Amino acid sequence: xxxxKITITLxxxxxxEIERLVTAGSREGAASTSSWIEEAVTxxxxxxxxxxxxxxxxxxxxKEENPGDWEAALEAVRAAxxxxxxxxxxxxxxx
Length: 95
Known about the structure:
Elements: H1 12-26, H2 33-65, H3 67-84
Helix pairs in contact: 2-3
């Protein structure tokens, strides 16, 4: 898969700890700081995907078991979001 070089900003103590772990891991086969960070990002993305699947499952169950309550709750959230000026990220919409 193609890779893209980016710049990130982290607190110094976190960079030092990553570098320490990478150096310690290099004796065990860890390749680089970039690969260490990529593994961490991959784990976080997988966690987010699992969480989204759980939310999707809960939404489907709520809609099926309590359709009227679900719609009322969703409308209350939409109204609260509107009062606070919240807008869904581009390409996303409330369930």
